[in-house]
Structures are given as structure tokens and as C-alpha cells.
Here is the input.
Amino acid sequence: MKRNLISMLDVKDDLERIIDLGIKLKKESKKGEAIELLKGKTLGMIFEKSSTRTRVSFEVGMTKLGGHAIFLSTNDIQLGRGETIEDTALVLSRYVDIIMYRAKSNKAMKELAKHATVPVISGLDDKEHPCQVITDLMTIKEHKSNLKGLNFVYLGDGKNNMAHSYLLGCGIAGMNIRIVSPKKYWPDEYYVKEAKKFGIKVEITDIVKNSTKDADVIATDTWVSMGDEKEKEKRIKEFQGYTTDKNIMKPAKSDAIFMHCLPAYYDYEVTKEVAHGKQSVIFDEAENRMWAQIAIIVTLSK
Ligand code: CP
Ligand code: NVA
Here is the structure.
């Protein structure tokens, strides 16, 4: 049966295996070994929103696997002119071996996944960003060796795709998670409930002071996700006090790392001093998108 990746829960049984495969293939490829596990295979990539990392990392990743990727912007394909998601899914499934979709909504993502006869990977929607969180967990494992028992703190928009996928990802990996966010931006209850089912400590708070105490990992994301642009001015006011700066980093463990999926907006969700500082691993994360996704594509293609 075909497998999709549209929620972190889709990898709840083999998350660490995917992460370890990503780490292994990264090492092999860097040693100069060929990792052409998907020779002649094609990935179709549908983008309804902008991207730098997702597009380039999937495309280069497919090349490294000996395959090929096709970039399909909804500005250029018939989906953008009203062809149905169902017909798009059925047609693309006749050409390509796997589909990556960056969608405006989780509803559209589920609709595409329902009708495609080949695996569908989310390149983000309004509810989750699973490829990024698998990548981030791989990056944490590289830096900390182990995931279980670590304390993860996320500051900022607790209701966005990253926060939701972090909740599930921490649950699956056995990491405790604290979300620090204005009350209005607390996560959807569904993700909190699902995360708690894994038996981890889940805390949602609007109190910034000391919220990073004993943290192993501190993460943030933009306050204005794609699709929220109309609320930009309002959000900037509402998120005042939630900027990750050097004072926020202080109560964390001395070897804590800072993460951001990028793109970053400096002096809003994070200062450049922290994002480019010695605790930051943001460019490892950007690189690891490619290696984690290589592992994801290989796993879903089996
Ligand atoms: N982190 C991430 O998904 O970046 P892009 O929007 O550039 O793809
Ligand atoms: N939360 C951000 C992530 C960008 C990679 C957004 O959806 O715009």
C-alpha cells in the first residue's frame, strides 16, 4: 500500500529509522559514495506558495538519488486555473513516481493525497510541516547523539505548522516540549492532545521569563507565516516580548542549541546575534532538509 507523509503521525512507527537513514546516507554521500537508490524515478513538486529550501533540497536530493524532479508552480499549471485537485492527482500519478505538495490548506493536501495513486509528501500546509520537523530532529540527533528525554522549547506562533509538527515530533521522539506563545496563538487542542498520548511533558504558557530554563533546544519561527500577511502589523504588536535574544538563551543549558526553519526575520522572532551565534545550528538544518528528505523519499518509495 502507498504511504504518504502529510502529518508527523504518518511516521510515528519509523521516525528514528528515517533519521538514522538520513544521517547514514549523508555520511556515505560526503565520502564520495553514490547513493543512487532511485535511478530513473521522478518526483513532481507542486508549489502553491513560495520556497527556497524545499524546492532546492528536494530537487538536488532527487538528483543525488539518481532520479529527477519537476517544479510545478500553481501559477503555471491548470490547477491554478480551476482544474480539480482530484484530476491533477490522478493525472500526475500517471507520470511521476512520487508527489511533493506545498499547499495553502491541509484540506487541499488531504484531497490530493486521497486521489493520488503514488505517495504524497507534504512540503508544508497551514497545519503541519513534517519534512522540516523530521529534519530538525535529525539535526538535534547529530548534535546531541540522542533525542529521548531532551527538553525542547519553542517560542512564538504556537498555532502555526511548525509548532504543531514539533508537538507531534517531540511526542514520537520522547522529548519534552514547552510552547511559549501569547494565549491567542496557542496550538490547536488536537496537536496538544496527540502529543500528550506519547507520555511526554507538554506545557503551553504565555510567560516568557525563565521559559527556557534547562532547555536543550530552543526554536522559533516567523510570526507571520505564508497566508498570514494581512495580519502582519497586528501580529508584530501581539508578539512583542517573544523575540529570542541573548537574554532568552541564558537560562538554557550551556550547550543548548538554537533552531529556526528559515526564512528568518531578524529582530522580530529572533535577533541576528542569536541566529548567527555559536549556539545556532540553522544552516545545518537547512542542509539537512536534503538528507532527511532523501531518507523520506527512499522510505516512502519502498
Ligand atoms: N524552511 C522552509 O521550508 O523553507 P522554504 O520556505 O524556503 O522552503
Ligand atoms: N511557518 C512558516 C514556515 C516557513 C517555512 C510558514 O508557513 O510560512
